[in-house]
Specification:
The structure is a single chain. The chain has a single domain, classed as Transcription Regulator spoIIAA (2-Layer Sandwich). It is about 45% helix and about 25% strand. The protein is built from four helices and seven strands; from the N terminus they run βββαββαβαβα. It has a five-stranded mixed β-sheet, sandwiched between helices. Helix 1 runs parallel beside helix 2. The chain starts with 7 loop residues before the first strand and ends with a helix.
């Protein structure tokens, strides 16, 4: 069996760590598990992280990804960090609205505005 490689990129900018999901579809449990491990590894390396999750390429995701986001959010806040989401496709954003996750997550139009929101609060 081939090893599952999470398809993310990690970029460090001034105040923020940006993780971009590079797949169009995040549907399989194995993909969600691999993403969880990859993102948690980045979070564990940086207490008080200012994390931006960039969904620019994602068009479809499973409900398990919503659970993953809540888990990541909890871990980031336990380490006194902050989390922002950005570039969410309109169809996915509707799911966030229906589930009221728009009240839970800071959601921004693009990476720049999400990253700038950290310095605006200090």
């Amino acid at each position: 069996m081939a090893a599952i490689q999470p398809r993310i990129t990690v970029e460090y900018r001034n105040e923020a760590t940006i993780i971009a999901f590079t797949d169009e579809r995040i549907l399989e449990d194995t993909d969600v598990r691999a993403l969880r491990e990859a993102v948690e590894a980045v979070v564990e390396q940086a207490p008080r992280i200012h994390l931006v999750l960039d969904f620019r390429h994602v068009r479809f995701l499973s409900s398990a990804v919503l659970g993953l986001l809540i888990r990541i959010s909890k871990r980031v806040y336990e380490q006194e960090g902050e989390l922002r989401l950005c570039n969410i496709h309109p169809g996915i954003y509707e799911v966030f609205k229906i589930t009221r996750l728009t009240n839970v997550f800071g959601i921004y139009e693009d990476v720049e505005s999400a990253a700038q929101s950290f310095s605006a609060r200090q």
